[in-house]
Design brief:
The chain has 15 helices and twelve strands. It is an alpha/beta fold. It comes from Sporosarcina gallistercoris.
Length: 364
């Protein structure tokens, strides 16, 4: 294998260390195994039409120049997200006969094609011309096969994986002391972007109802305030209803997230939709019970008692799910949870990915 270039519209930087960290982690995993990789990525999370046009325009031009200069040294390209990122891989195939792999993360199938018929058509073309399509969840695979006409044999379900050297159980009392958390306080943890679609407001409402049974409980919200207006709405709700015990903890590094997960009594992930739900897998690896919406990849990840699934947007069901997890009454199938964590470990992910790359190289 000569060299691979990874294209991604999300990648971390010094200023934004968690932005697309899962892509960087996979790149580093591949490099450690001996694969030679270059990256052409966007590390600027700024939203807005003008920002989007500028950053995507600059990235596309840079990526095209890269392909022109390196086409003879490349085995294949690997795009994360179908559109717009996968489009540069499609261009590379048509201009230079470079095969490509595309990894789908959820929004590129659930949201992007619905923006316009042209994007939907391009997405279909990108997926159908790919040498292989990777989906982070089973539901996404079914969508790709049934709605975009991709052969089932050309699609592999493979999450971004969990690094068990980072996410694993820790001594709770010591970690809580380090984080300044009371030893006997029930801690409900949320990790993710603080946006409406993550079910944050419903979580606040469920927590409020839960306090009647567990007055000492606290809710810790960890993540980026991507929507300042929504965060203000949540804070106004908290103030208006005089809710105590809710703390906005800001963003954290991977190491810090692992500590918070090891210290928590339960991770809540009440998303409206979720391609896979990587943070739920990380919580499972850290030994934290997970209560999540029965949507997307979460429905498969937490099946058979590996976690507690509740209907999305239903506050009362969410409250009951949290109470069930906090009661510790055997609601979680620990053996099943461990089986799933092993299945999604970096070692297993690397094995699958290298097999896909190898098969493409052999058929060139």
């Amino acid at each position: 294998m000569k060299k691979i270039v990874v294209f991604s519209n999300m990648y971390p930087s010094v200023e934004h260390p968690t932005y697309g960290i899962f892509v960087k982690n996979q790149v580093e995993l591949l490099k450690a195994s001996g694969v030679v990789i270059d990256i052409q990525v966007i590390d600027n999370p700024k939203a807005g039409k003008v920002n989007a046009l500028l950053k995507y325009g600059k990235w596309f031009a840079s990526s095209l120049i890269y392909l022109v200069g390196n086409r003879k040294n490349l085995t294949l390209t690997h795009a994360h997200y179908a559109f717009p990122t996968g489009y540069i891989s499609l261009v590379g195939k048509r201009l230079f006969k470079l095969p490509y792999v595309v990894t789908l993360h959820g929004g590129d199938i659930d949201k992007m094609p619905k923006k316009s018929p042209r994007i939907a058509k391009l997405t279909r073309t990108i997926l159908q011309e790919a040498s292989h399509v990777i989906t982070v969840g089973e539901r996404l695979k079914q969508e790709v096969v049934t709605s975009f006409g991709v052969s089932e044999t050309n699609v592999t379900v493979m999450s971004m994986g969990v690094d068990r050297t980072v996410f694993h159980p820790l001594e709770r009392a010591a970690i809580r002391e380090e984080l300044g958390l009371p030893e006997n306080e029930p801690v409900i943890l949320f990790i993710g972007n603080l946006i409406r679609e993550k079910g944050v407001l419903e979580l606040v409402q469920a927590f409020t109802a839960l306090q009647k049974q567990l007055p000492d409980a606290s809710l810790r919200l960890v993540g980026s305030a991507k929507s300042a207006a929504f965060v203000e709405e949540v804070k106004e709700y908290i103030t208006t209803h005089q809710i105590e015990g809710i703390h906005f903890e800001g963003t954290k590094t991977q190491k810090e997230l692992a500590e918070w997960l090891a210290a928590a009594d339960v991770l809540a992930l009440p998303s409206y939709h979720e391609g896979f739900g990587l943070v739920a897998l990380e919580a499972m690896a850290a030994g934290a019970p997970v209560v999540a919406s029965d949507v997307g990849g979460l429905s498969y990840l937490l099946a058979d008692g590996a976690g507690i699934l509740v209907p999305a947007r239903e506050v009362e069901s969410l409250q009951q799910g949290l109470l069930q997890a906090l009661s510790g009454d055997g609601a979680i199938n620990v053996a099943k949870r461990e089986e799933i964590v092993h299945e999604h470990s970096y070692e297993m992910i690397l094995e699958k990915l290298l097999k896909i790359y190898g098969e493409i190289e052999r058929t060139r």
